[in-house]
Amino acid sequence: MYNDRMSSGPKSGKRRKPHKLGRNDPCFCGSGIKYKKCCLPKGLAPPKLTQVPQSVIDEQEQATLKRQQFLQSKGIYISLPNTIVFQGKSFLAVGNKIMWDDNPHATFHQLILRNLSQTLGQEWWDAETAKPPEDKHYIKKCYEELQGSDTRDDLDVQQVDEHTRTMLATGNTQTLMSPAFDVWLLTQKGYMPNEWLERLRDRNAYQGVRYEIGVASLFVRMGCELEFYDPSERDENGKQPKRAEFIATHTPTGNKVAVEAKSRHVDGVIHSPGTMNYRRALKGDITTLYKKALLKKTDGLPLVVFIDVNSPTETGQTVQNTQWFADVKRSFDSRPDPTPENPDKYAALFVTNFSSHYQGSDVARGGQYLFIGSMHPVYPISGGYQGEFMQKLIRATSNYGFVPPSMDNSKIAVYETPTISSKEDFINKLRKLTMPEEGDPEYERKKTESDNLVDMLVWDATQKSGGGWSNEVAAECYKQFEWLYKQP
Question: What value, to the nearest 5°, has the Cα angle with vertex 374 and ends 369 and 376?
């Protein structure tokens, strides 16, 4: 299914005339590009709406709206193109190109994985295939593990229809799907520098660049435009200036920020040489990365810093109970408080732990993050930390790792989640699920465990809602926890 072929679309001797769609209208495939520059030159035309009953059109519009609302609860505020089946093939827009798969039932996940393999290139892919397991790139290892994993009993494989199944992601699968979605998203919006692609292929550079790509995708999800510094720029001494990774502009709020991303390397993890020391891996020693990030020139723009601690996590462990959180807190508590006369160089700092790779072939756990906003930044963010810009960024960050299950309106059922009407309803459902029965000889102990679980999950849902409360996010949290709790 994953034959490596990128095409501008099926060849056609006669171009089909579009029906009720102007050349300058947005393309029907959902790419956001004008029809005349997207599917029209490829011979692709929209369906004839006069042949479609109005009830079907209304149903499709409702499905699209429902999906958009769900994606916004996950921190994705932009329109994404639908997958399309045409002439027995599956199509997906990738920037100003159209990628196809000969399988008419290919899923969105399969298509973005195929796009990742095509982006890395056939030559690179073949070279990695020929290597012994210990020398293969981590991306290729994860891809090979994914093949056939839908037969595993512990991944809760569910049949959606006769052609489609869902399953829980392993740690390696999650670590593969996240950059696959990020690469597709950045390419789709035209923000994928060649330098990043070269580093993505490089074993030694992979860990750092995958985090930079992931952070960039967060800003794209919230609707920002990205601008990259000129790599050929030199200062008066002929040296390359220390710039941030990129500039992100959010037109609706008028914010323009410089963004820097750093990832902590751990011996023996993701191509890093040496042997992993588990206790050392748990630590949150980010001081050196933090200091390097503050050296970046921003030309008067607010600096937003992302640092990933790359630390193992335990099931059900909250951020406050981790070793890395204690280390980061201790480090910042020891620093002098900023003042208007001595402001912080950063406006916002996100310390993340997107480390599903530690789970390997076991079921993946969610990521973690800590947000630190300066009370006195040298260049503040417009709207403050409760404003639209920061709230969208927080929600996007808290939901990093989520990949839309489908971009096909006929499979909108995959977005169905248990209904949660309020925080109280969420708590009540959790208590009903976890509370022991009266008369249980271990009632007090189990009740304490239930109380702790409820507190932890309310905190988790609040964080994933961007610090507020979203019933949609809470419903998704409940759905995931319910399945895990019912496992034997």
Answer: 175
Domain extent listing, the chain = 204-398, 418-485
Alpha carbon 373 to its chain centroid, in Å, reads 22
Q: Are 111 and 90 in contact (CB under 8 A)?
A: yes
Contact present, 32 and 81 (Cβ < 8 Å) = yes
Rounded CA gap, 54 and 64, in Å? 15
Residue 363 DSSP SS3 = strand
Structure confidence at residue 82 (pLDDT): 85
C-alpha to C-alpha distances, 229 to 113, 195, 243, nearest whole angstrom: 29, 12, 7
Q: pLDDT tens digits, residue range 238-297?
A: 888 889 999 999 999 999 999 999 999 999 999 999 999 999 999 999 999 999 999 999
pTM (whole model) above 0.90: no
Alpha helices, H only, 267-306: 278-281, 287-294
- Determine what percent of the chain is predicted with pLDDT higher than 90: 52
The residue assigned the tokens 């690469």 is 183
- Dump pLDDT digits (tens) for 155-170: 878 777 788 888 888 9
H helices present in 307-401, as ranges = 323-333, 388-398
Q: What is the number of other CB atoms lying within 10 angstroms of the CB of residue 482? A: 14
Helix 471-485 to helix 443-464 angle, to the nearest 10 degrees? Answer: 140
- Could you report how far apart the first and last alpha carbons of the chain are, in Å? 35
Phi and psi at 150, nearest 5°, equal -75, 0
418 to each of 160, 307, 432, how far by Cα in Å? 17, 34, 14
38 to 30, 34, 80, 126: CA distances (angstroms): 10, 6, 15, 31
Distances (CA, A) of 311 to 275, 278, 367: 15, 9, 10
The Cβ of residue 405 has, within 10 Å, a number of other Cβ atoms equal to 18
- Residue 181 is which amino acid? F
Specify the range with the lowest mean pLDDT, choosing from 11-15, 216-220, 275-279: 11-15
Among candidates 51, 53, 48, 3, which has minimal Cα distance to 21? 48
Residue reference for tokens 């997906």:
92
| Amino acid, res. 417 | T
Look at residues 266, 252, 255, 178 and name the one whose alpha carbon lies nearest to residue 215: 178
Q: In Å, what is the CA distance from 153 to each residue of 55, 147, 332, 363, 431?
A: 40, 15, 45, 12, 28
Looking at residue 189, its pLDDT comes to 93
